[in-house]
Amino acid sequence: MKIMEEMQELFDFLNKLMESGEYARLKEELNSEQPANVAEYFEELTAEKQLFVFRLLTKDMAAEVFSYMDSDTQEHIVHSITDREVRNIVDEMFLDDTVDFLEEAPANLVKKILRNTDAETRKLINRFLNYPENSAGSLMTIEFVRLHSSMTVGNAMKQIKRTGTDKETIYTCYVIDDQRKLIGVVPLRTLICAADDNTIDELMQDDVVSVLTTDDQEEVANIFKKYNWMALPVTDTEGRLVGIITVDDIVDVIEQETTEDMEKMAALIPSDEEYLKTPVMVLAKNRIVWLSVLMISGTLSSFVIGHFNSLLEVAVVLSGFIPIITGTGGNAGSQASTMIIRGMALGEIEIRDALKVVWKEIRVGVLCGVALGLINILKMTLVNRDTGFWINFSVSLSMAAVVVLAKTIGCLLPILAKSLKLDPAMMAGPLISTVVDAVALVIYFSIATALVL
Predict the structure, then answer these.
(1) Residue-by-residue DSSP string for 353-409
(2) Which fold has domain 298-451?
(3) Does 146-246 carry CATH code 3.10.580.10?
């Protein structure tokens, strides 16, 4: 909250400078501020003011701010500025940031960007754009420090000082051979602390973990989480070093994957657009598909109720407890599925662990089910005094059985989805509840038939 208040104070101050015509002071303040904060300030401005403020930025600052802007603002800026200004932005931006923008930009903007780049940069951009979407190749950058194993520390440090300002990171340097194959890494800290006549071969770590250009971004994110690295090398199928992925890009990937999983768990078709910028028709389209599937699958419950209609006619009071049984079962199933989906996302649970998971959830289900059953029969005895012991016992026993089965289903469905190469997040929330509802009714009515009639 404090940060938000400080940001609003900054925006109010910048607006005041603009309104009072203190453009020299405004330019000074903008160029001394954090680029991410300036990019956020652009969202507060009208389209005309955005262009005016953007032209107050220095070339370096403009490129950095541009990389932090949302896609709509980026498109407006590129549409509005001259070719020379576009060229300045592309020259100053890191290649991976340029590619990120071009992946989302409409064709006319891509053409404007590409025609304002030199032949070598255009070739690199086109190569990046041809990598599979959400792959390591589409995330990587080529701005990193390459060293040869025969170099001395003194020569390596000279090279880093000469070229380091153009690199996205210099904290880890990558060692290649004459065929550009990755053979080791050496941290900058090691170079700084070593003698100038030491060779890179003596200092480098040769047990390098790398990813292929075709590896999925989720797999890359898991490697970052496991090793807590700032950067990760990317190689081709022949082991040649072609780029690195930095942690700032992986933070975006983790946010994207988490959002996608949350949307799938809520029975939504994932969308890359921000909520307030997504048209109503698109939001409706993203929701109606799964709502239709769940509605149709929900007819299973109506079939079950229809099958046991004679039971309900004899003991009408049983119908009053249907929401309690199905609701408790749905909640129990959702708890289990959420835990399993999280465990699978973090790499803690694999398909081979299915039996362990089921056995654990059955035991958890028994403990939870017995506890809920006892609480329920006590509640019904005190509150529903006219229902009679056997109805109270039927409802409570059904609840215990449903909880056990719901937790079993809740843990099995995500594992089944992964074994079928589907996203486990699909087997959560609404879908689990729909399946469990039908099963819960069968259990409830079967027990009630045996004990009540």
Answers:
(1) GHHHHHHHHHHHHHHHHHHHHHHHHHHHHHH-TTS-HHHHHHHHHHHHHHHHHHHHH
(2) Tetracycline Repressor; domain 2 (1.10.357)
(3) yes
